[in-house]
Amino acid sequence: MRSPKDFFRPLAVGAPEPLREIPFRPSRMIHFFDPSNEKMAAKVPDMAAQADVLLGNLEDAVRADRKEAARAGLVKVARETDFGDTQLWTRINSLDSPWVLDDLVTLVTEVGDKLDVIMVPKVEGAADIHYVDRLLAQLEARAGLTRPLLVHAILETASGVANVEEIATASPRMQGISLGPADLAASRRMKTTRVGGGHPGYLVRTDPTGDDLTAGRTTYQQDLWHYTVARMVDACAAAGILPYYGPFGDIADVVACEDQFRNAFLLGCVGAWSLHPKQIAIAKKVFSPAPEDVAWARRVIAAMGDGTGAVMIDGKMQDDATVKQCRVVADLADALAA
Ligand code: GLV
Ligand code: MG
User: Fold this and answer.
1) ipTM score over 0.90, yes or no
2) Residue 152 bridge partners (DSSP)
3) Would the N or C end of the chain have less CB density within 10 A of its end CB?
4) Cα(first)–Cα(last) distance of the chain, in Å?
């Protein structure tokens, strides 16, 4: 049997040539829907026209007594919907749950040809990915599938973060990794009860200017997720797979959502989850490079000729390294426009 390695090379925009072999498919937002909710499932064809990725969620947020209905609902939606260029993903239940075996067997057997990526929650280390990889290979062979399903891990346990590098390289099926801030906060015993985003208590304060310790001091809220996102981005970039920010639970706070998504984008993430249609537009805006940044990148690339040496543009030094930075921005803009 052909191994997934025969047909899959991971994609990383801006990565060296050998990593660009599979066609680019945008994944700026992974839009979650609950397939056990008939009203939501009925909107899937509409959502497919708006989102880069639609994900039928079987795990957390689906009640225990609705797990079977969610699985059956996803099979129905997958069979009946023309997804066009939009990818269809699913988030299966965790590997220690009573539902995951049926999730994998049913989905791969019934609609394995419609699914692109299986998101695996609460991944602790490479052994979890090896298990899913082997089971998928068996199920794919039995179903006669010719296109391997890809695997996406959620980074949402302290062990997962400690093992993120081995997770990223655990299988040629690895497509990417998302931060799961809610479960991760619980696993680490952090004291935030939010789903992603900041916390007003996590701050730095400027020094006092005199004896009065309370007067005139400014506080700056810090990003609770900076360390984990940066670590995840490094692990993914080194492995040639894609990093994503996960969920932002305060749907009404579109400003903080955009800020959190932008921090992730600037650090190297290619997308985030969307839990509500209004977060689709936010992700599309944030994870597409701004026209002025693309124009600047193209100016630097043009001025740098063969990409070596140094030039000054508007008083700023450009060289071999800055032209590489600019290619990341310009390549992403080209890939999204194609
Ligand atoms: C997502 O699954 C999270 O736990 O944040
Ligand atoms: Mg979670």
Assistant:
1) yes
2) 119, 176
3) N
4) 34
Atom 1 in ligand 1: residue holding the nearest Cα: 180
Segment 47-82, tens digit of pLDDT: 999 999 999 999 999 999 999 999 999 999 999 999
Strand pairing class (242-244; 174-179): parallel
Q: How far apart are CA 27 and CA 13, in angstroms?
A: 12
CA dihedral (213, 216, 219, 220) positive or negative? negative
CA atoms within 13 A on the CB side of 291: 0
Amino acid found at 275: L
Could you tell me the pTM of the whole model? 0.93
Joined together, the tokens standing for residue 205 give 């304060």
Q: Is the CB of 156 under 6 A from ligand 1?
A: yes
> Cα–Cα distance between 178 and 164 in angstroms, integer?
11
Instruction: Give the total residue count for the chain.
Output: 338
Taking the CA of 247 as reference, the closest ligand is: 1
